[in-house]
Automatic annotation (TrEMBL):
<dbReference type="Pfam" id="PF03147">
    <property type="entry name" value="FDX-ACB"/>
</dbReference>
<dbReference type="GO" id="GO:0005759">
    <property type="term" value="C:mitochondrial matrix"/>
</dbReference>
<keyword id="KW-0809">Transit peptide</keyword>
<dbReference type="GO" id="GO:0006432">
    <property type="term" value="P:phenylalanyl-tRNA aminoacylation"/>
</dbReference>
<dbReference type="InterPro" id="IPR004530">
    <property type="entry name" value="Phe-tRNA-synth_IIc_mito"/>
</dbReference>
<feature type="domain" description="FDX-ACB">
    <location>
        <begin position="365"/>
        <end position="462"/>
    </location>
</feature>
<dbReference type="GO" id="GO:0005524">
    <property type="term" value="F:ATP binding"/>
</dbReference>
<keyword id="KW-0547">Nucleotide-binding</keyword>
<dbReference type="GO" id="GO:0000049">
    <property type="term" value="F:tRNA binding"/>
</dbReference>
<keyword id="KW-0067">ATP-binding</keyword>
<comment type="function">
    <text>Is responsible for the charging of tRNA(Phe) with phenylalanine in mitochondrial translation.</text>
</comment>
<dbReference type="InterPro" id="IPR036690">
    <property type="entry name" value="Fdx_antiC-bd_sf"/>
</dbReference>
<dbReference type="Pfam" id="PF01409">
    <property type="entry name" value="tRNA-synt_2d"/>
</dbReference>
<comment type="similarity">
    <text>Belongs to the class-II aminoacyl-tRNA synthetase family.</text>
</comment>
<feature type="domain" description="Aminoacyl-transfer RNA synthetases class-II family profile">
    <location>
        <begin position="152"/>
        <end position="363"/>
    </location>
</feature>
<keyword id="KW-0496">Mitochondrion</keyword>
<dbReference type="GO" id="GO:0004826">
    <property type="term" value="F:phenylalanine-tRNA ligase activity"/>
</dbReference>
Length: 462
């Protein structure tokens, strides 16, 4: 992603403080019916984001994200009924849950205010479902099931386009072998392999990680090679099973809708080495779809520290974990062209889907859109005028336009050779999924975007 430069949090904070207090500052924020104290330097969650809390698309009947979640849960549970499901966790979590319990280093970019929505200095909107791993690991004994699945809405400050939205949904999956019994892992793997063998599609799997073991996060020293080999096979086969199920469903619906279409006859997967602070080794799985490798999911063998944090005894357990983004897979599966449609309240959207079924979304007439450019000179960087991150500009547009913004793109960047002053031009496309928007309305929003840019970042409009 392009970024102008990282915001310097210290200087950025004091500046936001000055400007926020006169206008938007509130001492207390209500999120999901609960009150939270704000923090002058940390709070950056906006009303338009708070409005998404509680929509819970992942459990909304007949919604594509819900249909996909259900499909994956059922497939995984069909193997050996090993998973407890948690789908109702609150999105407001502590920095400890989201980062520290998972061993995120203090300077990890995920912690920065340009990437994360903070409620106050110790509380934030979870950026991933891994925030609940520790808690769920500590409940494994009670539930009697060695695994769990957590689905939830997650929040990240990001760019604005057809595939990015600041709120999306993830499913976390974890499986633990308390006691580290090799015969047990082998038995579980056998059951899983049988299920995979029954699968109707031909699977082609490339695994570069086998010949090129990850060096940034090698196996943890308390584990044996055999254990790591077996547990990583269990993890990889579980994900291959789930992903082939999802794409096979898609292929079936393609065939039913148009038998003459260019329909894939096999599914191709590839495993690549990856890095996550709380898993070692770690991988990502990609699937070949529409002539491209598509990143589906990050995963790995959980760092012992997470298990110790959850109350396990030293060297007593081994576990895998994965985290899968539901929205983009749902978009592929149902051929939904714009991520904002997932949030649409238009009956023409939701009436097209039915729990348990995968069908191709039929586009309906779009409401007309409208484009505006905003061009401005950045101020010289000084103490009062800190660097501006692109996500800060995105946030101003989101907060002013809400769901009426389709995309924001940098279309021009220019430095005056004489003065060395930098100018940027962003093109904002406004369009509603649910109704007509008037020119007047767009002009008002555009004006607000401009005013806020000037107020917050001291830019000079061109
Ligand atoms: N939480 C990670 C993400 O959001 C995914 C992940 C989950 C990776 C579990 C490893 C283990 O990208």
């Amino acid at each position: 992603m392009y970024s102008i430069c990282r915001i310097n949090t210290q200087r950025g904070a004091s500046r936001l403080l000055l400007r926020f207090q006169s206008t938007d500052a509130k001492e207390v924020l209500t999120i999901g019916g609960k009150n939270f104290k704000t923090h002058p330097e940390y709070t950056n969650v906006t009303p338009s984001i708070i409005n998404h809390v509680g929509k819970s698309l992942h459990v909304k009947p007949n919604h594509p994200v819900n249909i996909l979640r259900d499909l994956i849960e059922k497939k995984l549970s069909s193997v050996d009924n090993a998973f407890t499901t948690y789908n109702k966790f609150d999105p407001v979590v502590s920095t400890f849950q989201n980062f520290d319990s998972l061993g995120f280093p203090a300077d990890h970019p995920g912690r920065s205010k340009s990437d994360t929505y903070y409620v106050n200095d110790k509380t934030l909107l979870r950026t991933h479902t891994s925030a609940h791993e520790m808690e769920c690991y500590s409940k494994v004994g009670e539930t009697g099931k060695p695994g769990f699945l957590i689905s939830a809405d997650v929040y990240r400050r990001d760019e604005i386009d057809k595939t990015h939205y600041p709120v999306f949904h993830q499913m976390e999956g974890c499986r633990v072998w308390n006691g580290r019994s090799i015969p047990q892992i082998k038995a579980d793997l056998k059951v899983l392999q049988k299920k995979l063998d029954e699968h109707e599609m031909n699977l082609v799997v490339e695994d570069e990680s086998l010949s090129n073991p990850p060096d940034v996060n090698p196996k943890q020293s308390y584990m044996t090679d055999e254990e790591v080999d077996l547990v990583s096979q269990h993890l990889k086969r579980s994900l291959e099973l789930v992903i082939s199920e999802v794409f096979t469903q898609r292929i079936k619906s393609m065939r039913a809708e148009n038998p003459n279409a260019d329909i894939p006859t096999e599914l191709k997967f590839r495993w690549v080495n990856a890095y996550f602070p709380w898993t070692a080794p770690s991988w990502e799985i990609e699937v070949w779809w529409n002539n491209d490798w598509l990143e589906i999911c990050g995963c790995g063998i959980v760092q012992q520290q997470v298990l110790l944090n959850a109350g396990y005894k030293e060297n007593s357990a081994i576990s895998w974990a994965f985290g899968l983004g539901l929205d983009r897979i749902a978009m592929l599966l149902f051929e939904i062209p714009d991520i904002r449609l997932l949030w649409s309240e238009d009956p023409r959207f939701i009436s097209q889907f039915k729990d348990g079924h995968i069908n191709t979304f039929k586009p309906y007439s779009k409401y007309p859109g409208s484009t505006r450019d905003v061009a401005f000179w950045l101020p010289d960087e000084t103490k009062e005028n800190p660097e501006v991150h692109e996500n800060d500009i995105m946030e101003i547009v989101r907060d002013s336009a809400g769901s009426l913004v389709e995309s924001v793109k940098l279309v021009d960047r220019f430095t005056n050779p004489k003065t060395n002053k930098k100018s940027l031009c962003y093109r904002i496309h406004y369009q509603s999924m649910d109704r007509n928007i008037t020119n007047d309305e767009v002009n008002k929003i555009q004006k607000q975007v401009e005013t806020r840019l000037v107020d917050k970042y001291n830019v000079t409009l061109r």
